[in-house]
Amino acid sequence: MAEQKIFAGPRIRRIRNAKGLTQTAMAEGLGISPSYLNLIERNQRPLTVQLILKLASTYNVEPSELQGEAKSSIAALKEVFSDPLLSGELPGDQELVEVVEAAPNAAAAMIKLFRAYREQADRLSDLSEIMAREGHATTLSSARLPIDEVRDVFERRANHYPNIEEEAEAFTRLLDPGDDLFSALKGWLKREYGIVVKVLPVATMPNWRRRYDRHSQRLFISERLSPFDQLREVAMEACLIRMQVAVAGEIQALKLSSDEARRLARFELGRYAAHALMMPYAAFHAAAVRGRYDIDVLRSRFGVSFEQAANRLTMLQRPGTSGVPFFMLEVDNAGHRFRKGGSQGFPQSRFGGGCPKLSVHAAFGSPGQIFVEAVEMPDGAEFLTISRTLEGPQGSFAERPRRTALLLGCDIGFKDEIVYSAALPAPPLGGTARAGQVGATPVGPACRLCERPGCLARAEPPVTRPLGLDEMVTGLSAFDFQ
């Protein structure tokens, strides 16, 4: 393999200027002509091995200084230009290389400034949550990616769309699926639109869950998906065709700021519609109440997955026939939170969902097991939480499977209506059934917003307290504070 050529003109120029040398003087020391050195400094000639060794011996320059030092800076600058504030301004890779090579100190300063800006934005977000929890309206805002805007809108509003529920019920009556919704949907798509549904092997669809080919009128579904997820993909396609007016109306009501955000919202509402079709509201609500919200009973009754049944429980807020107001949170094993929602919106100010002590993180240690826990917030708010891992699409033998964990929660006051409350410790004899008296786990909204002292799970200091820097005392937490 040919060696990679090393062009380090700006670095050679910096070394020469730092030593106060002219091109003629440096060229004489290196045993080359001034014109050749001029070409090197303008990146029109690469450095040779002999020249690198000569630089090292004559000017005490480490060879590592002349190669590869720009890679980390280029990656960091790409992160800077990916910020929504600089949308559309991202230079090409060559332009970033030129910036780093020609002005490394300026590039480093830009990266440092960007990281300070992101840190301050995070702090403002934390303080905004604190103020909102205390009842103070905030107008703090920042440029966001479309996915962030969509997530924020869906998390803050109730996960219930009456128009889509009505359309789903009408669609169910039209299909009359009996016990085989998958076949009913395939028949409807073929009969009404000439669309044929095909399940294709992994080798044919290595990167897609679903793909619609408009030319051949075929809807391809990956065999990576479980039968439940295959059904949801077909139901989404059918619902987005059948309910396009209702979905468009809901998207317009969300008042999103960009076409990309509206496209993402359409996907989320399509998934909502699919769940409404797979688990019709009246039948699902009645079964949930009778079964005391046992998710495994519901998934078996309606032929859906654990995740689909749990998600549907957060949608039961029809006036007159509402259910327990559940909220949900889904995370991966690295702690990334990428799905939140609830019957009344996700309780960000009351629950947060960012505490590392929540059982949703422990669930990864016992895949498939259901964890039931009562948790107590610093302000005394108490919640019942149910956590379990979810398996993603199946890969080949050599691929690591995708695994996430779902937390379903509600106010502890509803525990008597829920079958999972039987797993909570019994209250002391003669005592009340408050969660704080039955072994509730003390948690917080997130480490940066939590002031619980001596917490062994603390990952960050609170923004509301100064750090304790007493050299004579060390607390149990990784971050002591006053």
Automatic annotation (TrEMBL):
<keyword id="KW-0804">Transcription</keyword>
<keyword id="KW-0805">Transcription regulation</keyword>
<dbReference type="GO" id="GO:0003677">
    <property type="term" value="F:DNA binding"/>
</dbReference>
<dbReference type="GO" id="GO:0003700">
    <property type="term" value="F:DNA-binding transcription factor activity"/>
</dbReference>
<keyword id="KW-0238">DNA-binding</keyword>
<dbReference type="Pfam" id="PF01381">
    <property type="entry name" value="HTH_3"/>
</dbReference>
<protein>
    <submittedName>
        <fullName>Helix-turn-helix domain-containing protein</fullName>
    </submittedName>
</protein>
<dbReference type="Pfam" id="PF09856">
    <property type="entry name" value="ScfRs"/>
</dbReference>
<feature type="domain" description="HTH cro/C1-type">
    <location>
        <begin position="12"/>
        <end position="66"/>
    </location>
</feature>
<dbReference type="InterPro" id="IPR018653">
    <property type="entry name" value="ScfR_C"/>
</dbReference>
<comment type="similarity">
    <text>Belongs to the short-chain fatty acyl-CoA assimilation regulator (ScfR) family.</text>
</comment>
<dbReference type="GO" id="GO:0005829">
    <property type="term" value="C:cytosol"/>
</dbReference>
<dbReference type="InterPro" id="IPR001387">
    <property type="entry name" value="Cro/C1-type_HTH"/>
</dbReference>
<dbReference type="InterPro" id="IPR010982">
    <property type="entry name" value="Lambda_DNA-bd_dom_sf"/>
</dbReference>
<dbReference type="InterPro" id="IPR050807">
    <property type="entry name" value="TransReg_Diox_bact_type"/>
</dbReference>
<dbReference type="InterPro" id="IPR010359">
    <property type="entry name" value="IrrE_HExxH"/>
</dbReference>
<dbReference type="Pfam" id="PF06114">
    <property type="entry name" value="Peptidase_M78"/>
</dbReference>
<dbReference type="InterPro" id="IPR026281">
    <property type="entry name" value="HTH_RamB"/>
</dbReference>
